[in-house]
Design goal:
The chain has 377 residues and is of the alpha/beta class. The protein is built from ten helices and 18 strands.
């Protein structure tokens, strides 16, 4: 639900185009909720979800660590006050020059999923810690991750052995169960693979000191999702069933789960039309679409709650689309959204749950539309 702070801000401030407003109090509450759910686990905020300086600075004050995907994100976290020791370079695809620059800035933790990446780390960041990312199927996730990241257990063992041969510290394993993961048991399935690798490496004298359990923790959109406490309970149960009470240090990397429900986008209706006289559904075009921040509507994977503060008539199904001159810029057509039948051109709509992966997905200048404006309250 859009908070009163966000609504009050929107009432006081007018913008020419769409804007995202993020409520820091929601971020604070979500962080503390996950700390309670997994008290022995360090939280590495996934900066890519929302790198607003105010969000990063708040999380620094709360004691968070950070997962970064680029040298730019390293620099953003450092500018916000994070210590280099609290930052993990979690992208498995890095330029060697970026690894070197991160190492110069004090970063010591790097992810890899193949021997070739380990070799880059060894050359550019000698002595660094290496986490090997395992491949998962992402079952249960509304925004599944592909085979682009991770490797199977046999390759993971080779990666860690290679890291040790090259003088690196093969200290951790990581995985990601898919974004907007709605199944709290998904971590149990992933940990089955982790344990096999853990024991094989132990036989080689490689001790895994840390397990990075990844992100995937969901935000509420149109449907209810399990609570943080549900995820914490099942993750702890899975860890104890496989490691007893002496399991390695653990890390989680929530992004969406911390900031998703903290933001809302104000958008304007640009056009309402029908394609023919017999068309049963009207088309509603907004001044924001896939290329302006709503990329996660691809294949209608993420369904945002959309409401109007103007039309008061009966809600009817409509096809929702963005403003750009690109035919894929259609948000919801297979499953239309419902908006008041008396909605008018120029009316505003609120798109809830948009605190994560909107401003960062907004392209710079596609069709001449500016990046999404962001305000933090």
């Amino acid at each position: 639900m859009t908070t009163k702070k966000i609504l009050d801000f929107l009432d006081r401030h007018r913008t020419e185009g769409p804007c995202l407003v993020v409520d820091l109090e929601v971020v604070r509450k979500n962080y503390r909720t996950y700390k309670r759910a997994l008290p022995r686990t360090r939280i590495h905020y996934a900066v890519k979800a929302n790198p607003a300086p105010e969000v990063l600075a708040l999380l620094v004050r709360l004691g968070a660590s950070f997962d970064v995907a680029s040298i730019r994100e390293v620099e953003m976290a450092l500018r916000a006050g994070a210590s280099a020791g609290s930052i993990s370079y979690g992208n498995t695809i890095k330029k060697e020059g970026d690894i070197s620059r991160a190492h110069q800035l004090g970063i010591r933790q790097f992810a890899a999923d193949c021997p070739e990446e380990v070799e880059k780390i060894a050359r550019a960041a000698p002595g660094a810690q290496v986490f090997c990312r395992l491949l998962t199927d992402g079952a249960g996730a509304e925004w599944p991750l592909s085979r682009k990241f991770g490797c199977d257990p046999a390759v993971a063992c080779d990666v860690m052995r290679h890291a040790r041969r090259l003088g690196l510290d093969p200290c951790g394993l990581s995985f990601h169960v898919g974004s907007q993961q709605t199944d709290p048991f998904a971590w149990q399935r992933a940990l089955e693979e982790v344990v096999r690798v853990f024991h094989v490496l132990a036989g080689d004298g490689i001790v895994i000191k840390c397990l990075n359990l990844g992100g995937g923790f969901p935000s509420r959109y149109l449907r209810d999702v399990p609570l943080a406490a549900d995820y914490g309970r099942e993750i702890l149960r899975a860890l104890r069933s496989r490691f007893g009470n002496a399991f390695p240090d653990t890390v989680i990397e929530p992004g969406r789960g911390l900031v998703g429900d903290a933001g809302a986008i104000r958008s304007e209706v640009v056009l309402i039309s029908r394609k023919s006289g017999s068309d049963p559904l009207q088309w509603v075009y907004l001044d924001i679409g896939k290329f302006n921040g709503l990329a996660e509507t691809m294949d209608e994977a993420i369904r945002y709650p959309i409401t109007s503060r103007y039309g008061r008539g009966k809600a009817v199904p409509c096809i929702l689309a963005g403003p750009t001159c690109d035919s894929v810029d259609v948000l919801y057509e297979n499953t239309p959204c419902r908006l008041p039948h008396d909605l008018k051109i120029g009316d505003e709509v609120l798109i809830g749950g948009t605190g994560a992966y909107t401003a960062t997905y907004a392209s710079v200048g596609f069709n001449g539309f500016p990046p999404l404006e962001v305000h933090v309250v």
